[in-house]
Amino acid sequence: MNKSCKFRERGISLELIIYLMFFVTANIIDWIMVLSDIKESENYLATLFIVFVSVIVLIGIMLKKSGIILWHMVSKADCVPLFLLFLLAVIGVPMPDTSYDTLNYHVFWQDSFGQDIIGNHFFPTRVINSLFFCLGDRTYNIFRQLLGYRGGTILGTLALMLIYLQGKIFLQEAYFVITGKETGKRQRILASVMSLLCILVEQILISANTYGVDWLAIPFLAEVILRIFFVDTQKNEDIYILGLMAGVCVCIKPSNAVFVFLLFAFYFTKFHQSIRWWIWLRGMVGGLLICVPYVYMSYNMTGNPVFPYMNSLFKSEWFFLMGVDEWSGMKDLFGPASLKEYIFWPYFMVFQSDSIHFADYTQYCGRLLVVLVAVVASIVSAVVTKKRSIIYEASGLFICVYILYLTCLNGHLRYALFMEWFAGVILAMIILALLDKRGLKRHYKVICIGALMLPTILSVGWTGKYIVTSQAFSNKENWVQNVKHLFHDYGKVDLPIADIGGFIVFDTNGSMMSMINCDVPIVNRKSGALTEAGKAQCETVLSNITGRGKTYSLSKPNALIQLANEIEKQGYSIESVRTVKMPTIISANQFCYLVTVKKEKKEIKVYEGNEVGEVSFDASLSGKRIKILIGRKWRDMCDEDTDLKVCIDTNEQIIATPLNTNGEFSQYEVQVPDDINIGVMIKLDTDNLQNKWIIVEYS
Questions:
Q1: Which of 82, 66, 407 minimizes the C-alpha distance to 237?
Q2: For the residues of 525-541, what is the DSSP string, one character each?
Q3: pLDDT at res. 507
Q4: Which of 15, 485, 579, 601 could form a disulfide with 591 if both were Cys (CB 3.0 to 4.6 A apart)?
């Protein structure tokens, strides 16, 4: 073992141990809920404190008895990179996370673990996300309970900081292995800068300050990689910690299992002679114990312990996904579809990213394309020269990771952010080797390093442009308004209604409905119920809703027209619409729509875009005079002398004053009463179109 290596035998960094403690704490709380068969504890913070302190004591005792060395990864050279990552979080954290997956299922599972989503609810989120192993979400819940909804995303920032530190350690140790030289100040600073660049990729930074879980497992996978390359021997106690990390990785996101299996196969190959087989078995048992609460809940409700995966084996009657493989749980729309695409997939990612086979991104910087060329070149060079190096070994491991990415994860780059980080580390390692290489002319070095750095430069540019145009930068007034909600956005939202029997999800926003402070069923009609069992259970839960009170749905800001279309498509009608504020989960200056829906269908006429025109006025309209612009197509449906009546958030109709009814658009003016306070929706009606109405929506 090299004398420079800080990644010592039987050692583990204090930063990683603290990070692991949060996940173990969340897992123990979930164990308590499963064993006691209760919902989320009303005394959550007290439970959290007791469990977290217990975890600290237990892990502390284990470390002391085993003699495992604790060491720090943070040094003076890390101050600037860590500050930049923290600054990115500080700037973005006031804006609440309203991303697709968060409003669909992340928030639901943060505070709804243990709920019966088939008997009480009916798949309140998309079916493929309704029974995920949700340890990542549950760990986010710890921070959300302590810091509020906006501040809860800090867990993701902590993960990024940890990934940066591990990348720095990897590059420092790789430099020593490649050159045989101790790392001086210049090399340490260079390693820090390049490690920061390794995580500056679109999929990670664009998702910063969200409740996404895709990168939370990278620190644990990176720990295994560091041990594979820079540790000579391992002891029994290391296996127990790594077993816990393996279980946490799988429970954060089941797709991580493919990387866990690969990396631990490499790890076992290296250390199997120094560690006895029953120790490996105990480590596996520790990892499986992490999975038990989620396996139990999934099996108890669906009959499939890993629903919706491996349904070809378990044959759950609740699997009603179309276009999804019943073994892998993956959509067959994505990933390589031919031998040509398998071979040249990195090329297609860069130059044909609008293909139907791609998911989650519309542009890609090309890091995967460049690193594959580099690793193939390094492997060929090692074979020809018969000189094996750490670059050669890392290249071989990366090829294995890449093959799993294509074959098991259908080309979902977001599911393989570990691979994206590892690609950056390999490129940085090659650059360090080139900088130290003697005999290579300077201009050749510049060309090679420039080519290796190009994807990262493009990624930083694209990501920077995205961040600058985001709400946190482009709308400073909105940002300031949201700052006021920091550390005040705890708990659920109270709505001024008492007759909610339940909710129907017509869109992917089940989390929004779970944030309403009422214990009522939530039925997701968007998922569909294609099996006979699914159809019957869906109708049973719907009948329970109608027996308890009125049925409601929630629309995201600026999405009421889409909701109205979906409601009509599924045979329902809108009885009334109210604007409500949910500043806990939605931006401070935005309104949601609380829609009362009925099964009886009536004709609804909805026009979009220029057919309706635009309405532009403040969110608070009490006592104000507003102007309404309506497309001629709608106006032509009315008699020429028909008054335009406006219904504003109440059943009271107000006659609009026509200002200009000639031309492409008709303009009207309405005085809003002093006691009305509405958001971003008005309803228009006329005497001769009483059963036809139109929603005018604006942002």
A1: 66
A2: SSS---SHHHHHHHHHH
A3: 80
A4: 579
Residue of 473 and 238 predicted with greater confidence: 238
Strand duo 665-671 + 592-598: pairing: unpaired
Please, are residues 225 and 424 in contact by the beta-carbon 8 Å criterion?
Answer: no
H runs (alpha helix) in 231-314: 236-252, 257-271, 277-302, 311-314
pLDDT in tens, 278-326: 888 888 999 999 999 999 999 988 888 988 888 888 888 888 765 666 6
Q: According to the model, what pLDDT value does residue 454 have?
A: 85
The number of residues making up the chain comes to 699
DSSP state of 128: G
Q: Which of 548, 502, 497, 493 is nearest to 525 (CA)?
A: 502
Asked if 260 and 249 touch (Cβ cutoff 8 Å), the reply is: yes
For 670-680, write each residue's pLDDT tens digit. Answer: 776 665 544 43
**Using omega within 30 degrees of 0 as the cis cutoff, is the peptide bond preceding 308 cis?**
yes
**Full-model pTM:** 0.85
Q: Measured in whole angstroms, how far is the alpha carbon of residue 677 from the centre of its chain?
A: 34
Mean pLDDT, rounded, of the chain:
80
pLDDT of residue 439: 66
Q: Does residue 78 surpass a pLDDT of 50?
A: yes
Contact 427, 368 (CB under 8 A): no
Report which of 374, 378, 370, 363 is spatially closest to residue 346, judged by C-alpha positions: 370
**Furthest CA-CA distance within the chain:** 92
Q: What is the 3-state secondary structure (H, E, C) of 164-198?
A: HHHHHHHHHHHHHHHHCCCCCHHHHHHHHHHHHHH
Residue labelled with tokens 């909105």: 478
Q: What pLDDT, on a 0 to 100 scale, did the predictor assign at position 332?
A: 64
178 — phi, psi (to 5°)?
Answer: -70, -45
Three-state SS annotation for 634-661: HHCCCCCCCCCEEECCCCCEEECEEEEC
Contacts 24+ apart (CB under 8 A), 462-469: 462/202, 462/363, 462/365, 463/200, 463/201, 463/202, 463/205, 463/206, 466/202, 466/206, 467/88, 467/92, 467/205
pLDDT of amino acid 461: 77
Neighbours of 442 (CB within 10 A): 7
Inter-residue long-range contacts of 296-305, CB under 8 Å, 24+ positions, other chains counted = 296/34, 297/34, 297/113, 297/114, 297/131, 298/131, 301/116, 301/117, 301/118, 301/119, 301/131, 302/118, 302/131
